[in-house]
Amino acid sequence: MAKFLGSSATAFHLEQLIKTARERLVLINPLLKFSGRTKELLEEKSGLDVQVVYGKCDLQPDEVQGLRGVPFVHTHFCRSLTAKCYVNEQQCIVTSLDLLDFGQVTNNEVGVLISRAEDPDLYNDANEEAQRLLRLSEEVRIRVDKPESAPSPNAALRSDENASAAAKLSTHRLAKKLGLKTHELLDGLQRLGAIEVASGHKQLTQHGLKLGGEFRSSTRFGDYFVWPENFELSSVGETNGVH
């Protein structure tokens, strides 16, 4: 059955949850900010499918570089996120504990540990909700802003964040407007040839540029795409079975 956890027990079991993950690991936390201990544990999970869902990024440049050094960790932005939930293939922890505080708990925290073996129905409910948050999130590639004298290879695809802001929608907002889930829209855009996947990350294609897509960067959200508000998506809907 589910087990109630106090401050030290929550930190202990969260470390064990990360350590014992063998197939997948989903870390859902409003703030993208890791403690040193969290980063150490993640660096040891090479080859594992690690998904991090966040609502606000507060990483320093050196921390961003460190995160980009572990390419198997994929970050996903979820608007209005306040949930804190950590899941591997066998356990789930729903808690008040941040990844930032993990490893050096200074606040009074609580949590609930759910075991797949002991509480399969409860675990499945928690896991399904974690997967739902993951699906409605938009994958972003966290980056360090580079000086103008040394533009990145994607500089030609990057535009000022304030330019045409009113006329452009992020992939997440466009999907919501069209009544689609973000992953459905992304799948359709990929089939349309507007975006492509390279080295595990989505990139805007020349065809996507012609369709009005833009690549943008934000110190808060990372890299993301925007599209015209009146973007014609009939072909995308057809490829996804959505009309």
Instruction: Give the overall form.
Output: globular
Supply Rg. 19 Å
- Supply the helix-strand structural class: alpha+beta
Which CATH class of the largest domain is shown? Alpha Beta
CATH architecture of the largest domain: 2-Layer Sandwich
- What is the mean pLDDT? 80
Residue share in helix: 25-40%
Topology order in helix (H) and strand (E) letters: EHEEHEEHEEEEHEEHHEEHEEH
**Percent of residues in beta strands:** 25-35%
Main sheet properties: 8 strands, mixed
Going by CATH, what is the homologous superfamily of the largest domain? Endonuclease Chain A
In total, the number of domains comes to 2
In whole angstroms, the N-to-C terminal distance is: 44 Å
Strand order of the largest sheet: 1-9-8-7-2-4-6-10
CATH third-level topology of the largest domain: Endonuclease, Chain A
Number of helices: 8
Total strands:
15
Low-confidence sequence ranges: 144-166, 235-243
How would you characterize the overall build of this protein?
The chain is α+β, with helices and mostly antiparallel strands. The chain has 2 domains: 3-140, Endonuclease Chain A (Endonuclease, Chain A); 155-239, no CATH class. The protein is 32% helix and 26% strand. The chain contains 8 helices and 15 strands. The chain has helices spanning 7-20, 36-43, 61-68, 120-136, 171-178, 182-192, 206-210, 234-239, and strands spanning 3-5, 24-28, 31-32, 49-54, 56-57, 73-77, 85-88, 91-95, 111-115, 138-140, 168-170, 195-198, 201-204, 214-218, 222-228. The strands form 4 sheets. Strands 1-9-8-7-2-4-6-10 form an 8-stranded mixed sheet, with helices on both faces. A hairpin with a 2-residue loop joins β12 and β13 (201-204). α5 crosses α6 (182-192). The chain is globular and about 55 Å long. It starts with a strand and ends with a helix. Residues 144-166 and 235-243 have low confidence and may be disordered.
